[in-house]
Amino acid sequence: MTQSPLTVEPVAQVIGGRSEPTDDYWGGTRSILRINNERFDERSTAGLDAFSHLEVVFFFHLSDQTDLNLGARRPRDNPAWPEVGAFGHRNMRRINWLGISRCLLVKVDGLDLHVEDLDAVDGTPVIDIKPWFDEFGPRGETHQPAWTTDMLTNYFAPTDQR
């Protein structure tokens, strides 16, 4: 396999919302995806307001990049949960430090996309923004281990429950 480095350019930045990443209580978090006005104009958001949700690819810019674990480890270091390999996690300890989140699109205001439930913090570089198409959701029956449901019980609980 050829391992050539890739170059990516952020298309936007997260404005507002949370200032520090946390494991839970992202529900109701409101922020803005401010699209780079040096590269894009308002035509780039034409028709986006017809969609209810976005998928956002972002860079975990606040992560300690020395804390990389490509092997197996317990989610959130919880001894009650099994060791899971690097590709069985969705956290920031990834070789390319990329996150993906699905969020509610509240409003399009020019190059500002107002969103809710985006689990990225203020200042986060956004690599890509895509509208959610139902047809790209899972096909067929889905399943997952019980520990994920246990771990994520409060992930999108309202922020005022902290």
Could you write a compact summary of the structure shown?
With 162 residues, the protein is mainly β. It has one helix at residues 146-151; strands spanning 12-15, 30-35, 53-59, 72-73, 84-85, 98-109, 112-116, 125-131.
What does this structure look like?
- By secondary structure, the chain is mainly β.
- It has 1 helix and 8 strands; from the N terminus they run ββββββββα.
- A 6-stranded antiparallel barrel has the order 1-2-7-6-3-8. Strands 4-5 form a two-stranded antiparallel ribbon.
- The longest helix has 6 residues, at 146-151.
Largest sheet: 6 strands, antiparallel, barrel
Average pLDDT works out at 90
What is the global morphology?
globular
Strand order in space, largest sheet: 1-2-7-6-3-8
Structural category is mainly beta
| Total number of strands | 8
Alpha-carbon distance between the termini? 46 Å
Percent helix among the residues?
under 10%
Radius of gyration: 17 Å
Could you name the ranges where pLDDT drops below 50 across 5 or more consecutive residues?
none
Listing every helix as H and every strand as E from the N terminus to the C terminus, the arrangement reads EEEEEEEEH
Number of helices: 1
Please indicate the percent range of residues in DSSP E strands (runs of 2 or more). Answer: 25-35%
